[in-house]
Design brief:
Helix content is about 40%, strand content about 15%. By secondary structure, the protein is of the alpha/beta class. Helix 5 (about 125-145) packs across helix 6 and helix 12 packs across helix 14 (about 385-400).
Length: about 425
């Protein structure tokens, strides 16, 4: 896999040539020193990752940019078309111009496009493979027109063939789809999968093998935290997280992880099930996700939320949680903001147990002014109780002067409710 289009200095890639090839003259040594100085500047690493979320494109692609701006995001992921159909409405010149103009105004970068869900570049069925290659080429062409930075694609399912054949077919499909295209600095990112069904890509070794078969495409990687967890990379503790990063480094190089799909998991460890969940409310948990967010070797990447939309305001809450991970130095043992544990009814009504535990966190300064609470729907789903229990707990906390409820409208005019610590 090649290094970054901006900084092509990964150890897995051929460098600029040997010193001997550049010559040993004084002039060559001066030029080499100048190059090294420029590299030192180029290689300066950002202090934190850029963060964003997957936004809908209803009403026009530019609306996703406006929503990202309204929530203070500086990165974005979108579909450039209907993700569940083979045929896409062509991009009109006006659509492209408007998108580029609004992007320049709001300063969102990078812009990540996710390929449509029907594409299966590893398909054993020839008809599906041909459709997938044609559809993926169209996705790449749309990205190039829009000026997107990255296109994320799942490697696909090898159903009907063995895993090695699926890996080879995926590579051949990628090469065929991009034949003759001038990609420039645009990069295709292979996303690791949960391994559900017969999907390839659930091991980092798979991503390496695919990339090695596509030397001309400058492929990168999109790391999905929920997928990695349910595929068998136990990132819940420090040792497991370090082992996962070491495997990524060995196989693809962490510098090539250009995006991170930052998701908690509703599915349990090593289940091979793909179910994203709200940050801190799933089986990975806030402490582990905070560790990932603060990994210095991923500070160059864009962290993109793909969390559910159970209620209006969920994007804001999840984004606030991610932002808190990277802008503060949390005590990772205390970062599980809403690690509420309910006992049976003999310990009191569920709403009362929730209220008491939140009160204790506020009293112990684990929660402070401005901290966002999860939506009633997401916390109720985590605890497998009726949402009304959470709503009553929040109501009592609000009237006790500990929590503020804010009702407003988002940028599309839809009602948005948020609960924060006073």
């Amino acid at each position: 896999m090649k290094g970054s289009t901006v900084r092509r200095k990964n150890t897995r890639v051929a460098g600029r040539g040997s010193t001997k090839a550049r010559g040993d003259s004084a002039e060559a040594r001066v030029n080499e020193g100048a190059c090294a100085a420029r590299d030192a500047v180029d290689e300066e690493k950002p202090s934190r990752p850029r963060i964003g979320f997957h936004a809908g494109i209803a009403g026009g692609l530019q609306n996703a940019l406006l929503k990202a701006q309204s929530l203070g995001a500086d990165a974005l992921q979108i579909f450039s078309r209907n993700p569940r159909g083979w045929k896409a409405r062509p991009l009109e010149d006006e659509d492209v111009e408007t998108f580029k103009r609004v992007r320049a105004e709001v300063g969102i970068t990078p812009v990540v496009v996710h390929a449509n869900y029907l594409i299966n570049l590893a398909a054993a069925d020839e008809g599906i493979r041909e459709k997938s290659v044609a559809s993926f080429r169209e996705e790449v062409e749309r990205c190039l027109r829009l000026g997107a930075d990255y296109l994320v694609v799942h490697p696909g399912s090898a159903r009907g063939a063995c895993e090695p054949d699926g890996l080879r077919t995926c590579s051949e499909s990628l090469n065929a789809a991009c034949e003759g295209l001038e990609l420039g600095e645009f990069r295709i990112l292979l996303e690791n999968t949960a391994g559900q069904g017969e999907c390839i890509g659930h091991r980092f070794e798979h991503l390496r093998e695919i990339a090695e078969r596509c030397p001309g495409l400058n492929l990168g990687v999109c790391l999905d935290t929920a997928h990695a967890f349910t595929a068998g990379y136990d990132i819940r503790d420090e040792d497991g997280c370090a082992a996962a990063f070491d495997s990524l480094e060995r196989n693809v190089g962490l510098s090539n992880v250009r995006a991170v799909h930052f998701n908690d998991s509703k599915a349990v460890y090593n289940s091979r099930v793909d179910r994203h969940f709200h940050i801190s409310l799933g089986h990975i948990g806030a402490a582990a996700l905070a560790r990932v967010a603060r990994e210095p070797r991923l500070a160059h990447a864009a962290f993109i939320l793909e969390t559910p939309q159970d209620e209006l305001g969920d994007d804001a809450r999840n984004l606030s949680m991610l932002r808190s991970f990277i802008t503060t130095a949390p005590n990772l043992e205390e970062t599980a903001l809403m690690d509420i544990q309910l006992k049976d009814r003999s310990a009191g009504p569920h709403y009362l147990q929730i209220r008491e535990q939140i009160e204790a966190r506020i009293r112990d300064k684990q929660l402070s002014t401005g901290d966002a609470l999860p939506s009633p729907a997401s916390l109720a789903a985590k605890l497998s109780i009726d949402r009304g229990e959470v709503q009553r707990a929040y109501f009592e906390l609000e009237h006790a002067g500990l929590v503020s409820k804010t009702v407003g409208k988002d940028f599309l005019g839809k009602e948005k409710v948020a609960y924060t610590v006073r």
